Amino acid sequence: MPPLGLLHMRAWASLFSRLLRPPGVVCIREVHFHSQVSEAVLTSQLKPQHEKSNFIIKTPKGTRDLSPQQMVVREKILDMVIGCFKRHGAKRLDTPAFELKEMLTEKYGEDSGLIYDLKDQGGELLSLRYDLTVPFARYLAMNKVKKMKRYHVGKVWRRESPTIVQGRYREFCQCDFDIAGQFDPMIPDAECLKIMCEILSGLQLGDFLIKVNDRRILDGMLAVCGVPESKFHAICSSIDKLDKISWNDVRHEMVAKKGLAPEVADRIGDYIQCHGGVSLVEEMFQDSRLSQNKQAIEGLGDLKLLFEYLTLFGIAEKISFDLSLARGLDYYTGVIYEAVLLQTPAQAEESLNTSGQKIRTTETQVFVATPQKNFLHERLKLISELWDAGIKAELLYKNNPKLLTQLHYCEHTGIPLAVIIGEQELKEGVIKLRSVASREEVAIKRENLVAEIQKRLSES
Amino acid sequence: MPPLGLLHMRAWASLFSRLLRPPGVVCIREVHFHSQVSEAVLTSQLKPQHEKSNFIIKTPKGTRDLSPQQMVVREKILDMVIGCFKRHGAKRLDTPAFELKEMLTEKYGEDSGLIYDLKDQGGELLSLRYDLTVPFARYLAMNKVKKMKRYHVGKVWRRESPTIVQGRYREFCQCDFDIAGQFDPMIPDAECLKIMCEILSGLQLGDFLIKVNDRRILDGMLAVCGVPESKFHAICSSIDKLDKISWNDVRHEMVAKKGLAPEVADRIGDYIQCHGGVSLVEEMFQDSRLSQNKQAIEGLGDLKLLFEYLTLFGIAEKISFDLSLARGLDYYTGVIYEAVLLQTPAQAEESLNTSGQKIRTTETQVFVATPQKNFLHERLKLISELWDAGIKAELLYKNNPKLLTQLHYCEHTGIPLAVIIGEQELKEGVIKLRSVASREEVAIKRENLVAEIQKRLSES
Lengths: 460, 460
Prior knowledge:
By secondary structure, the first copy, chain A, is α/β, with parallel strands linked by helices.
């Protein structure tokens, strides 16, 4: 059961890092470039290569480019996610990539060491944002906004060690959906869980489960097990590792490294191996130790209400109350949740890849071709008409390309239609319209061409 | 005539900074927050405030948040721009926000001091990207790609001094469209200019002009005017300022600061005050001095061909051959271009603001309301049905909101439809569907509600 690191709606950020290849390192010894800009840029790049022969052209450690194929997948995912956020009435926000350094200080506990700082080049001290939550809180404070349902899609940066934390990138994209404000309890939380279900279903990654817990239940549990309050934080971060390492290893960390009595660790172990539906909530209400703790009772009360709403939304069976769910960051105080896929990422990845046809990286609808020499002017006039009619069109940037090369380009890139203009067509005032797949051609009057293309495109 | 700093398709980056407000500084003394996350985040933020009373919550100098209203404008613009890029068959690419520091070294001439470096926290030395061009060149080199038509939309960072360079932000978004590869001359360049025209027309910012020149003409002109080759670079950067300061000031800089003989400066002045259409190209071919320079003749030949293609695209009258156009960056070697608006930015901004109605920041189509107490469960069931049918819907997160509050929310946020459920409706198996604008209400059978809503939405 592969865990998906989720912070509100961030399931897909983790999905991405699985869908996409690890950072590549390619050593270039000789490069031929022809575009004006690339040539000039690389000339200066290649100069030092003669001196240092091991010069490497690569992306920074832990980062990657997204190729056109990967961008098609990403945009499909983002369209789906953003569509869902809009369906739930959220507004979109954007904030700068960096914040004042002091704005990020003391927000992330143990993880603060993973923040990228900018060099002091005079002026303010800055850091790259670590998540989209702190910038949102800063926006609310700065503009004195007390109530807001917003979504934010953007990159964040964390100096993780990719060799240690498998598959994590140092730059990745987060999709946050937050409802800030004071409301009657659990209604917004239930909507957030509904959104998670809609998105995870929409992504068609197979079966999933959303674990929920409450920080008050967690704290109450630690208290009744006999953990001193000064150690809550450290013990939570051990519990949080349970999806990565075994209970034995977590227990060892608690006892050997964090100084917990073995019997206290064992009591914790009994609780955090419990998970279930609303019936487990009821059971915990009856638990002899937990029912003595005011905080825990409050948390359990809210979870009971939450399950009531989840049932009305028809998603209760997707949700699992899980006492091991801790979530590392300091800023959680109430309900917390996290999604897990019930199949391996490899299977999920496969289903995403095989569900469609070969991925097209452009949306070009029509290719403008000619079988004859010296027809560039006619091709340019024709393609301009198509562009002006809003039709996505391409041609080869050659004065005299071969017809076969042009048709091959259409087949290779998946362009469905080709229009062909030659001496004969020009004389007769027609254009040949060719279906690339079937290779059928019909002659169409020039003045009817755009309408005919639009008709064909709307039918397909 | 306000200049738009353009690098290929970057007109809109500059447009943005005009459309949007300057960076805000708000000093918060007291903040009340209610969402779990915001509260926790701000608690730690507010702690030091008691000690340092001048603590300020703000975005870093030269950066800004984009509010929901601004995001609606930005997304409209981006949709238009990206739609155009797709119409021309471009693939989308993404690269990391930072690059190896040495990758950016020696690429930007005088502007290199504006690059943001990351702090050395161990490992590679990194810098935030300064544009999207160098990352594209790095991508091509790294993947040994020789031919690619790609677009890239993303933020770039420059340590400009906003007080000196009016209206420029330190973080802004660029939209790049590039055609890399070796092709027959001027066909891709003509398409780039066509794209600029389509985008600037599409943005409806009023009349515009695109200045074109060629680095070879520029260099040839400097040579025949008597500028020593060692000073080409410095003189180009002076010429580049002609859209910001007067010719007299530029001339003064050339003579006093850059050591040019006054008569050489005057000869340059004669040329760089020339601008016109293809007839000016012809005229320069006949120019007694310029026609002696091989480089200039090559550039003029290409411009002539370019104008031929621009005429076929129907955009020749939008293009002005302008010998003062220099473009600062080192990596240009051939044709260069830049767009200018022919009205003031204030007018352009106005036309964008008044063209539409009041800007809605959400797309919510239906609001779920009740006139009665204790109807939360029914509202939740109903809204869940709407969401599952793909309808954008909202409700208030309150157990017992007042009907007036609910209807007011619809009017305030521009939601066109409200569905109302109460005791009576529940008994009769109907829902009231209300048009928020006309306040007309009809009762509709519960089972027909989704279909009726979809019908109404498709009609509006």
